[in-house]
């Protein structure tokens, strides 16, 4: 009974927090789409992989440090403190590097195939995002530390406050002041700043080892990177898919297909974030039991995570299917794009159950430091998608682009199952 209670305590706030993250991702698209139209919506969609990269860097570093801190804390509490300090310094260094990329915004958009009005709106948006990269990186990077310190509810509340600030400011900047995509980006940065400031204040209040010697920083940073590559990839993978699909949509059907997928991506992102919330919410418990040498409890948490993810997928898919006719108009899409969204969305719903399985399996792998398996699970999906995108559209046109994403998710789930079966016969817990 204690495991069930602990699971609910960690996972419920995590799922809610990731649900907010999913809504966070669509807020800019909603306000810009209603204010600017298809061009603005497409611009946000084309620029969003960079936003996701920034958030993935913070998540990867934060999750890598949090996993190692939790595991080592069960072995040597004092020695584990250095992973907290190393995590915070890594977040600072990466923030500086991303901010320095500000002049490259236009080049990146050209690389993604943006042209004309889409390029202009996208550049306005991306320049502001890069200038405020530090707030996004710290907002996403400190939250895993808070969650692993037992502050899952507080982590959720920090995201609620940032989300509320983002919505209010989007309304003010985009609708009232008519600042377009630039106003949406400013609202996003301020919202993330609210979350980052509150999160850092929590660390100081809890007296986590924020300050101290940096002796051994290089070794800690390497270990954090080794574990963090998987959660980094989990966070970035949907946006790699977004970037690939946008590029091939441009080749086969032009801007209308990009606008269609923008609406679809916004809709399914919420469900994908819910599923990732289950995985990340269960991670602190799995890492804790792994570090304490209690494999039976870690296995019980993993089984609960699978059941929770399956239940969420089975609940959300019929709901999205029923609402598919309202999604395009919600984001201000034109009538023709809205009809295409209604027709295409069911294809993407097929992959969500498989997506959930692979995400929970991957979270279990990196929570128990089986990094090689976690890498394979994470990076198989974009690699398979790229391969399929070069093949299926040649025979099926734009429909082949849509099905490439779903088949990649199905194949990745199969790979995850195979790796789980391979690892089952090994002594993987300390």
Properties at a glance:
single chain; 430 residues; mainly alpha; 16 helices; globular; MATE_fam
Query: Beta fraction of the residues?
Result: under 5%
- Given as residue ranges, the uncertain stretches (5+ residues, pLDDT < 50) are none
Content-based structural category: mainly alpha
Radius of gyration: 21 Å
End-to-end distance: 24 Å
* Oligomer kind: single chain
State the helicity in percent bands.
Answer: over 70%
Count of β-strands: 0
Helix/strand order: HHHHHHHHHHHHHHHH
Molecular shape: globular
Residue-averaged pLDDT, rounded? 80
Organism: Candidatus Borkfalkia faecigallinarum
Membrane topology: Multi-pass membrane protein
Keywords: Cell membrane, Membrane, Transmembrane, Transmembrane helix
GO molecular function: antiporter activity; xenobiotic transmembrane transporter activity
Detailed description of the structure:
The chain has 430 residues and is mainly alpha-helical. The chain contains 16 helices and no strands. The protein has helices at 2-36, 38-73, 77-99, 105-111, 116-131, 133-148, 152-176, 180-205, 217-252, 255-291, 295-322, 324-330, 335-349, 352-367, 371-396, 398-424. Helix 2 runs antiparallel to helix 3, helix 2 (38-73) runs antiparallel to helix 9 and helix 11 packs antiparallel against helix 14 (352-367). The chain starts with a helix and ends in a 6-residue tail after the last helix. The mean pLDDT is 80. It is found in: Cell membrane. InterPro entries: MATE_fam, MATE_MepA_subfamily. It is a multi-pass membrane protein. One of its GO terms (cellular component) is plasma membrane.
């Amino acid at each position: 009974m204690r495991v069930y209670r602990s699971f609910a305590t960690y996972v419920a706030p995590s799922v809610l927090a990731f649900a907010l993250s999913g809504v966070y991702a669509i807020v800019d698209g909603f306000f810009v789409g209603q204010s600017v139209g298809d061009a603005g919506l497409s611009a946000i969609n084309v620029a969003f992989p960079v936003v996701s990269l920034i958030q993935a860097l913070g998540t990867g570093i934060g999750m890598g440090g949090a996993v190692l801190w939790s595991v080592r804390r069960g072995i040597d509490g004092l020695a584990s403190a250095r992973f907290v300090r190393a995590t915070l310094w890594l977040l600072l260094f990466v923030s500086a590097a991303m901010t320095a990329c500000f002049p490259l915004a236009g080049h990146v958009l050209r690389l993604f195939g943006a042209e004309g009005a889409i390029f202009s709106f996208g550049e306005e948006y991306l320049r502001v995002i890069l200038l405020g990269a530090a707030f996004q990186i710290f907002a996403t990077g400190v939250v895993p530390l808070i969650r692993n310190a037992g502050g899952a509810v507080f982590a959720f509340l920090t995201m609620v406050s940032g989300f509320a600030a983002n919505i209010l400011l989007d309304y003010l900047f985009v609708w009232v002041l008519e600042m377009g995509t630039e106003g949406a980006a400013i609202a996003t940065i301020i919202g993330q700043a609210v979350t980052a400031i509150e999160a850092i204040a929590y660390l100081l209040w809890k007296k986590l080892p924020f300050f101290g010697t940096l002796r051994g920083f290089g070794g800690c940073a390497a270990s954090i990177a080794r574990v963090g590559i998987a959660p980094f990839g989990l966070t970035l993978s949907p946006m790699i898919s977004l970037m690939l699909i946008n590029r091939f949509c441009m080749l086969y059907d032009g801007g209308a297909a990009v606008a269609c997928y923008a609406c679809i991506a916004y809709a399914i992102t919420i469900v994908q974030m819910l599923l990732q919330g289950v995985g990340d919410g269960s991670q602190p418990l799995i890492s804790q039991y792994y570090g304490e040498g209690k494999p039976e409890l870690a296995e019980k948490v993993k089984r609960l995570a699978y059941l929770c993810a399956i239940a969420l997928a089975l609940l959300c898919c019929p709901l999205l299917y029923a609402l598919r006719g309202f999604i395009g108009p919600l984001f201000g899409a034109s009538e023709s794009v809205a009809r295409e969204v209604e027709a295409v969305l069911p294809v993407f719903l097929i992959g969500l159950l498989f997506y959930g399985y692979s995400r929970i399996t991957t979270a279990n792998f990196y929570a128990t430091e089986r990094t090689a398996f976690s890498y394979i699970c994470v990076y198989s999906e974009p690699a398979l998608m790229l391969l399929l995108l070069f093949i299926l559209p040649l025979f099926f046109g734009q429909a082949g682009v849509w099905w490439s994403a779903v088949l990649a998710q199905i194949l990745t789930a199969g790979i995850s199952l195979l790796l789980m079966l391979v690892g089952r016969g090994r002594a993987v817990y300390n």
